[in-house]
Design brief:
By secondary structure, this protein is mainly alpha-helical. The chain has one helix at 15-27.
Length: 52
Amino acid sequence: MHFATFAGSDVEASEPVAELIAAKEREKVPDFDEDGGFGIIDVGETAVVSVA
């Protein structure tokens, strides 16, 4: 939810994202647009979240 959450890494633009994707796959976590999912969106991108 916060801009620059992953700032500070030596390869801050790609390493944390790659690690998150690998962990999601390993733990079988669905994408953010699926029930119970989690993910990353681009800066300025809009995500619609259903709250039922």
